[in-house]
Each structure stands twice: as structure tokens, then as C-alpha cells.
Amino acid sequence: MGRQWLHAKRAIVNNKKGQLVGGLVKEITVAAKIGGPDLGANSRLSAAVEKAKKASVTRDVIERAINKGAGIGGEKMVMDHIVFEGYAPHKVPIIVEVYTDNVQRTTPEMRVLFKKGILGTAGSNKFLFEHVGIVEAHTVATDVDLEGAAIEAGANDFEAISHEQNDDIPEGTTGARFHTDRTQVHAASTWLSANGWTVVTSEIGYVAKMFPELTDEYRVEVGEFLQALEEHEDVQRVWAAVK
């Protein structure tokens, strides 16, 4: 009886690891479906594969995910891309991107998850976000001119990010998030990769134009709400107006 807690803890750890691997595999599949199987021409896929390798996902699993997304071989990805717009508690605007093979199942499940927020109608709050390219990367150099790097990469904006803000940014490195035109994501990722940066995220997403003021208590409630959304197996990305 005294060690049952240890078995329970291991089960939780294994479950979380399984969820992580499952999410990485799905990201690879989606990236291959959107941009094709060539890592050299698909920066989102390249970044996803690197994350999967760091998480010890096997080569065979990675290759199957790429082939499935790209429609190579017998197994093909059949999924609908749905964008839900709404508000988290305390009127925080959010956009949720979902890939599902069963819209009839996923839509009511999203309504249940939104019970503490507001599930909006199509077009309800996209005007509160910029639809842009997002590239996150890090470099071992400590004296980096981020503005200069952004200009050279063709980015429109940039901000420094740390390991505390993003686990994919190793401690002791210089991290940055670059915003580009949607058509320039791959070009920016390619330039960064060729100039001493390691790209960890390369995608098209949503960046909030304004951020509601939140107390510490409200921020915790919003964080719990967003976490519940992100844990849904069909949810690919959650974009929120939270700093």
C-alpha cells in the first residue's frame, strides 16, 4: 500500500510522455500535409522533426507521420481543419485551431470545454489578432543584434524570449521570436538556420493586437482554461491575448 503512490506517479509521467509524443507526431503529420514532405522546403516540418528527435521519437515513427501527412503510401491523413473563435474567462480573446477526423464529435466537445468561457461565432474576434508568420529560434551567441537579425531574415517584428517563456529555448542561449508576412516564414527560417540559429518553431499563427489587464488570480483562471483546451487531443494550437 505504501508504494502505490509511486506507481500512480509513474503512470501519470508515462501518460504525459505519451501525450507529448502523440502531439509531436500529429504536428509532423499536419506539417507534412500543409507543406509537403521535404524538410528542406518545409520549415515547419523541419522544426517539428527536430522537436520529435529531442523527445526520442523513433525514426520509423517520424517517417510514418511524414508519409501519412504527405499522402505517401497506403495510410493517408483525412482531417478537417476547424478554427474556433471565442473568449476565455475574463473576456480574453482566443483562437483555437483544431484538426479532427470527426467534426460531429469534436464540435460539441469544444462547446463543453468552453463552458467557462464564450464560444463565439465564425469571424467573431479574428479582427483582434494579426495573422502572421511566427519563427522562434535560439543561438549560442550572447552579443546578438536582434534587430539586425530580424532585418536580415526579412521579419517585420521581433522580441526576445527566454527558457522560462519557452521550454524549447535552452538555458544560456539567446532566444527570439520573429514575426513575418505569412509568405515569408520559410525564407526567414532558412536565413536564421544558415546564420547560426536553431529554429524551434516555424508556422503561421495569430498574434493578439491588445492584451486585457488581468490580476494574478484572473491570470491563473485563464491559464487553467487554456490548459484544458490544449489537452484536448484534436487541438493543435491555442492562440490567446495573454502576455
From TrEMBL:
Task: List the keywords (alphabetical).
Answer: DNA-binding, Transcription, Transcription regulation
* GO cellular component terms given for this protein: cytoplasm
Query: Residue limits of the TACO1/YebC-like N-terminal domain?
Result: 6-71
Q: Which GO terms describe its molecular function?
A: DNA binding
| Chain ranges of the TACO1/YebC-like second and third domain | 80-240
A Pfam match is Transcrip_reg
SUPFAM superfamilies tied to this protein: YebC-like
Q: InterPro entries recorded for this chain? A: Integrase-like_N, TACO1_YebC-like_2nd/3rd_dom, TACO1_YebC_N, Transcrip_reg_TACO1-like, Transcrip_reg_TACO1-like_dom3, YebC-like
Member of which family?
Belongs to the TACO1 family.
Q: What is this protein called?
A: YebC/PmpR family DNA-binding transcriptional regulator
